[in-house]
Here is the input.
Amino acid sequence: MILNSPEFSRLLNPRAVAVVGASADPDRIGSQPVRFLTEYGFAGQVYPVNPKYAELAGIPCYPDLASVPQPCDVAIIAVAARHVAATIVQCGEARIPFAIVFSAGFREIGGEGIALEQGLKAAIAASGVRVVGPNCIGIMNVPGRAYMGFGPGFRNPDLRQGPVAFVSQSGGFAFSAVGLVDAQGIGFRYVVSGGNEADLGTLDFLDHFLDRDDVEVVVTYIEGIADGRRLRAIGRKALEKRKPILVWKAGNTGIGRTAATSHTASMTADYKLYRAAFHEGGFVEVRDSDDLADCIRAFLGRKLPRGNRIALLTTSGGSGVLMADRCDELGLVLPPLQPGTLERLRAIMPAFSSFANPADFTAQLSGNYKLFNEGLRIVLDDPNADQVVIRYGAVQGRAATRSCGRKIWRRRARPPRSRSWSFGAGRRIRPRNRSRSSPSSAFPGVSPPRARRMPPGYCTSSRPRSPRCARSIACGRWSG
Amino acid sequence: MILNSPEFSRLLNPRAVAVVGASADPDRIGSQPVRFLTEYGFAGQVYPVNPKYAELAGIPCYPDLASVPQPCDVAIIAVAARHVAATIVQCGEARIPFAIVFSAGFREIGGEGIALEQGLKAAIAASGVRVVGPNCIGIMNVPGRAYMGFGPGFRNPDLRQGPVAFVSQSGGFAFSAVGLVDAQGIGFRYVVSGGNEADLGTLDFLDHFLDRDDVEVVVTYIEGIADGRRLRAIGRKALEKRKPILVWKAGNTGIGRTAATSHTASMTADYKLYRAAFHEGGFVEVRDSDDLADCIRAFLGRKLPRGNRIALLTTSGGSGVLMADRCDELGLVLPPLQPGTLERLRAIMPAFSSFANPADFTAQLSGNYKLFNEGLRIVLDDPNADQVVIRYGAVQGRAATRSCGRKIWRRRARPPRSRSWSFGAGRRIRPRNRSRSSPSSAFPGVSPPRARRMPPGYCTSSRPRSPRCARSIACGRWSG
Here is the structure.
């Protein structure tokens, strides 16, 4: 049975959360969600459950799930593995529809763990309780302040909010990535650690997030998916909904697959099968957290280019060559500039500039942002450019900001010029509900403070490593 | 003719520098080296040359090269392209052995530029003056404060000093990379922008830097090398000298090669030919500035592992899987831990830990650095591990530092334990002259402030993107 959206919403936005195995000992993981839920502004009720205490963290503590008040939507379970199945049965009896099981020591350790997981599955089937985990680190609803997890990733109440949802088969990994992407100015709405997926799995969450109006971009880290057919169906749904799924697939090599097997015991098929599914569309593959941040930003800019033709401007020939290499690797093309463009450039630029594509205005133009911007204006008019990319060399800081053509961008962002407009513009992505908390700028490869002052959809970089930003530029080809 | 080292030293450590085309106008590139050489602590003489001025920047200005006092080792040339050949002849007449030509508008623009470059080559041959450029942005001797260039890369007098030399076929690119690597706590000694290489080329500088006692690691950015045989000979020399050349090769794809041709007009052969040369040894290929920083750090740690067997410890299964993938891609192996190691680990670690390789101590151990370190100590004794790598998940800051095993490292870094010692240790690289100004720590993938507190040769990361650090770990296999 696939949950429908209103049901899932009770898991992500619970009215009340019980914590079974709540503890006053800060070293025990059962102590953590109690603290997070009472201290970070969660508006719902929190019910610690532990017969040892009458109260915990200044609120009443309950001896068992039967005595927890209704309606309670989620039980967090942090007891030893051998008690988990019985606790799920108690959730059912207490009419708690969802459980998040932190407890480890199931399928992933083999041996008796496998038997314990079978018992857990039987309890799930008998009780009708829907379960996240076991062996997960929890779920976070950032704007709802529902920090239903444990570990260092949950200890930051100041995480940014944004219209991004993240479903991960590795909890520790997901929250590391959330921290790094947060540091680049991008916020999340939901983060889900799926653990062993004894019941609810990655595909259930992906499916649900594609339906949610408050999610614009979906991110997933996967080690293994058993249902390849459903994975492909979800890719098609992503295309229909015009909502990309950024997928970070691990366990792709011989060693990596062995490691994945002992991590979440996911069956991980040959990488080629996944790549084939990803190439059907809907998915955008990323390989590290910088890729992830850049690609999220590209999509949140809500403007994608019409095609794969790039005009590349640089003040450093070498940076242009590196970027050209990456564009080639990613299936982007650099057509020659049109004769009219060349004529207009030659009329104003120094003779030693190169007007090929990449066009190299050379380091001698580094300080001269006015002339640089005049050149940029001309290239923007070139009908062959679906996207204009600026690659600085050593130019950083204010000089880079001033040669960013911000005013140019503003003037040209309005129709009817949009056809020749090409800062990653053209075809506009319209999410059904634009989230208020989403970033207003999208600027891959530039440090966050500067990025916030940049126009949406504008792709450039002041860092030489930023052949990386080619990945996000290539997002323009997302839907094929 | 190949220059021998004492001659080359006059170029890198000049007693006096003339600047032809010196200017009082800060917008003209001829103004910049005068300012850098007079303001940043250069101990030699500076002779601006321009008949328009009697003095410039508070020092006497000379009407022509003939009137410049001797001995003058370097002339910087910042005049229009059509005057460059004549100026080289004047350098010869004034007995100035080296010229650095900023002027652009030669071979790289085609047409009349090609003829101008032929004329320049004739002047070089006739005068005996050795020339860097044209179309270069200069040379920097960081500790010698000889900032003989222009552009934003030269505007930072506070660049770090270190035993690293960088030869680049793109000046703008080189100085961007220097800035980024500097920000990661790594300093340079010499940075050379070769430009069109009408005379002295990348291979001459690589050859020379391998000979220099004050250089431990050589870095090069190349777009094209005409003399493949000499490239391979230099690789062999690097192995003999036990001094790695980190090579960043661009212009590898169809589009990238076209771009390289219009940049420095280098003939760039098929990438496969370069890779073959690199694989013979001596060279380590890098692909972006993070790779570059990580690999420099790995070599400056001066300890390389004996082999390619990695023991990987993590608190995040997903991070372990990603890292295992990267290790596989780079030819590293993760052998199972020895039975004795497993027995000792099982005696102290929680049952839900995984003792495969990667060993996952799980997020539940994130805060427990003492237990983590006990586990680390045990794994370090495993005779199958040439190198131990720690991959945290969301653990950062003080917790990561405390679980770094710094004390463990110190105790075990001394022989006779070095055989089982494996933080990138084992085979020791002994450069002939250890530079005093070189970094005392080497810690790929960790932010600079923490990195400085870490022991040399220690490879880990607190960042999830750090499957990247696999590149520097693989440096251990440098010489094959």
Remarks:
- Confidence is low (pLDDT under 50) at residues 409-466 of chain B.
- The longest strand of chain B covers residues 161-168.
- Chain B touches chain A through 81 residues (CB under 8 Å).
